[in-house]
């Protein structure tokens, strides 16, 4: 398969057309936003260490349901991410231009009630990324770097610029915490403003995501990073096409037993059990009697394993 940047660009350009057609009215868009609100909270928080499952994230966001088995702060992170997502949707709807203050507001929503001292403010201290050789800018330089950042990107509409903006943002690392989540929301806001779907970076993409960011930072070669992000964009389109099944509504979420799920993905039950045991796959939910249940969204995830 030709996976050059040019061929990926062609792919996402054609999927963008299909996507525009599918979500061409307000009702369809609202359904999509509803789904994305929980999906992005789950995936983006998960790669930063949040332990809620997709189902738990959806339940707390959509129905305010929590259980005592997970840290309270992880629920707060899910709710905060959903609020920040609502905020970017308002920006998109009102055709407002994204700005430095808007991003500070996004950050404020992400850390509100978790770290109010830092929420909505650039860092005042040095930060290091554990296990990484990358040296992040001195805090004194952050305001100027962010000014340059906005000068450079304030009118960005091309897919390459939007993807590069995320890399530059996380490389400045302007906040004490919340940089990854904030950068992804900013990028996704710009993508949606320009008729692309958001880039969903799944929990199992974490390593490739981090490695590609770090490689770009250490060598200045952004090819691998760009390819990774473009292929995630292309797959995010596919996931959305699959979930919405070319209809403008979210299908009722039905959870299925391991037997049904195994059949759907075309694998033996033992393989599914093995993957769960090895941490490669997470059940969407455990029933009270301890049975694993899986969601329709996971079918595609499992089918994609091995493809990338
Ligand atoms: N060299 C690097 N290695 C790993 N992550 C990096 C690196 N440079 C920037 N990052 C970004 O830092 C993010 C984590 O920073 P952090 O402030 O803790 O964000 P969050 O609180 O959202 O987790 C990652 O998601 C990644 O986007
Ligand atoms: Mg963090």
Describe this structure in words.
By secondary structure, this protein is mainly alpha-helical. It has two domains: 5-251, Orthogonal Bundle (Fic-like fold); 253-308, Multidrug-efflux Transporter Regulator, Chain: A, Domain 2, CATH 1.10.1660.10. It is 60% helix and 2% strand. It contains 13 helices and three strands; from the N terminus they run ααααααααααβααββα. A three-stranded antiparallel beta sheet has the order 1-3-2. Helix 1 (5-22) runs parallel beside helix 10 (223-244). The longest helix has 22 residues, at 72-93. The structure holds adenosine-5'-diphosphate (ADP) and magnesium ion (MG). Adenosine-5'-diphosphate is lined by residues 48, 129, 132, 134, 170-171, 173, 177-181, 183, 210, 213-214, 217.
List the main descriptive attributes of the protein structure presented here:
Fic-like fold; Multidrug-efflux Transporter Regulator, Chain: A, Domain 2; three-stranded antiparallel sheet; 2 domains; 308 residues; mainly alpha; 60% helix; binds magnesium ion
Brief write-up:
With 308 residues, this protein is an all-alpha fold.
CATH topology of the largest domain: Fic-like fold
Question: Strand pairing plus helix content: what structural class?
Answer: mainly alpha
User: Which geometry do the CA atoms define?
Assistant: globular
Number of helices: 13
Strand content: under 5%
Mean pLDDT, nearest integer? 93
Report the strand count.
Answer: 3
């Amino acid at each position: 398969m030709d996976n050059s940047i040019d061929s990926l660009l062609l792919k996402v350009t054609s999927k963008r057309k299909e996507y525009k057609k599918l979500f061409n009215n307000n009702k369809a868009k609202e359904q999509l936003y509803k789904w994305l609100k929980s999906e992005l909270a789950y995936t983006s928080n998960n790669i930063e260490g949040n332990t809620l499952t997709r189902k738990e994230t959806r339940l707390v966001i959509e129905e305010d349901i929590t259980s005592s088995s997970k840290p309270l702060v992880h629920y707060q992170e899910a709710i905060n991410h959903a609020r920040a997502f609502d905020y970017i949707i308002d920006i998109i709807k009102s055709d407002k231009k994204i700005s430095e203050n808007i991003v500070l507001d996004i950050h404020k929503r992400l850390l509100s009630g978790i770290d109010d001292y830092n929420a909505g403010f650039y860092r005042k201290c040095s930060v290091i990324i554990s296990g990484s050789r990358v040296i992040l800018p001195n805090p004194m330089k952050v305001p100027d770097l962010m000014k340059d950042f906005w000068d450079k990107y304030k009118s960005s509409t091309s897919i390459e610029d939007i993807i590069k903006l995320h890399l530059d943002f996380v490389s400045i690392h302007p906040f004490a915490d919340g940089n990854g989540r904030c950068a992804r929301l900013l990028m996704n806001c710009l993508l949606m403003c320009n008729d692309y779907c958001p880039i969903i970076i799944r929990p199992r993409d974490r390593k490739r995501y981090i490695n590609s960011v770090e490689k770009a930072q250490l060598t200045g070669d952004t090819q691998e990073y760009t390819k990774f992000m473009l292929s995630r964009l292309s797959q995010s389109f596919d996931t959305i096409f699959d979930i919405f099944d070319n209809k403008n509504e979210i299908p009722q979420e039905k959870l299925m037993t391991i037997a049904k799920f195994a059949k759907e993905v075309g694998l033996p039950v033992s393989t599914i059990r093995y993957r769960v045991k090895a941490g490669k796959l997470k059940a969407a939910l455990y029933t009270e009697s301890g049975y694993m249940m899986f969601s329709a969204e996971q079918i595609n995830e499992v089918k994609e394993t091995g493809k990338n």
